[in-house]
Amino acid sequence: MYQYLFFSVIFLCFEHIIHVLGTWRLLKKMGISYHQQMIPIYNIFFLLKIFHRPTWWIFLLFIPLTSIFLLIILWIDLLRVFGNTTKKDIFLFFVSIGGYIYYINYFKKLETVNILYKKKKKENTGSNILFAMILSFLTHTYIVQPFAIPTSSMEGSLLVGDFILVSKIHYGLRMPITPISIPFTHNTIGRCKSYISFFQWPYLRLSSIQSIKRNDIVVFNFPKDLNHQVIDRKENYIKRCVGLPGDLISIKNGILFVNKKQEQEKVSTYQINKQQVYLIKTKNIPLNIEFLKENMDIEDVDLIGEKNDEYFYQIMLTEKKAIQIRNLFENIVYIKKYLLPRDFSEHSIFPSHFGWNRDFFGPLYIPKKGDIIKLNSKNIHIYYDIIVYEGNKIRKERSCFVINNKKNNYYQVQRNYYFMMGDNRHNSSDSRYWGFVPEDHIVGKPIFIWMSIDWDRKNPLNFFNWKFRLDRIMTTVDGKNSYLSFFFIFLFIYFSFFLFKKCCY
Q1: What pTM was computed for the model?
Q2: I need a surface site. Which of 9, 226, 229, 355 has the fewest CB within 10 A?
Q3: Shared domain check, 70 and 17
Q4: 207-245 per-position pLDDT tens digit
Q5: What are the strands of the beta sheet with 394-397, ordered from one edge?
Q6: What span, in angstroms and rounded, lies between the C-alpha atoms of 196 and 218?
């Protein structure tokens, strides 16, 4: 906490110096003394008063990104005072990212001060728009953030085209690590990074409303994202947390076991709708794929063979839908789960050299904070990344390990770690392939589906093929509660209010 506050104060001082150096001559011309300019916070406060800006904007100074916006607004006001408001001036100001104020301050001859700034003129429209943008940005950054589901890794719990709201405070708000970025972007705009990685704050997470529970759906930053090294700018993933710190995970015949107990399909108030590959064989008549897509929302269906009027399919299904299909089509010869053989080794599986695959995995222990692990030539493949991630250097010398230049075959874990899996068990890049998720990578808890669109996955921008899933719109992620009716009531009241307001004028 204190380290984070220290970095914030340093940044505020840095901004103060930039502001003073870039405006001192302009402010002196306006009759503001040097000692008034040098007082931090106060120097911004009296500028807000001079330009008749809302005084509550002073609070924007204490948030790194909004403080930059505040300075830009005040600098533009200064340009107006000295008549530098042509299209060329504004263009140069934004192209130079505000640096144009230095040119005006040091090199341009200052004309008579424009006295318009002294008039008490309310700019309610501009202030209201700015307030709405700032409120939206603060909500997006510190409370709840919208996400879209782009892949099928969580089917059938979350579908491609679901738009969800993710609470950042349930598991404890993680304060921004790279606070200087383009608002409402995550890590890139096109091929360019949308953030400045030079300024990095230390990791800080505020107190949580609840801890992560086993089988919670969690949004987190992808630990193996090599394109972005800063934690809060790594790609966002969404999976189900099947293993907590200290759990023992194993998979046998495609069935998950946690602490040697088989995974329960029904957990408290919701159902885990896990999905995997099924093989289907039909005789004489092909499978009605269009019916499956239109009526059962099944997208991943592949014809893998045809011989002697027999048709073979690979399809991603939940167990419930597999039973429904068997009962619907009389020409089905068999429908069965497809599992990899026990002795088949997937080279991309985590950890390497263990001979595991997605259907036969583990046992694997998930480390928790404070664990002391005895290292050996086998488990080093499991825990090497953790040791390095926690800021240590490790190498092997003969029969022992050297950690930070000291011989030590024991390592004490500094953080909690989690094991994540997609509900679409045979079509999910998850912890089985890239390992544990550190606690500082946790983003938040999905709480709400506010929109759901069934689009053509090969051409999602074809708006004419969009279909709205009304049964999913305005529902909780667990599917237990729907607020669609309340949404229509809200829209009715909202538009009625503006219609009445317009009629009054």
Answers
A1: 0.86
A2: 226
A3: yes
A4: 999 999 999 999 999 999 999 999 999 999 999 999 999
A5: 394-397, 400-403, 406-407
A6: 27
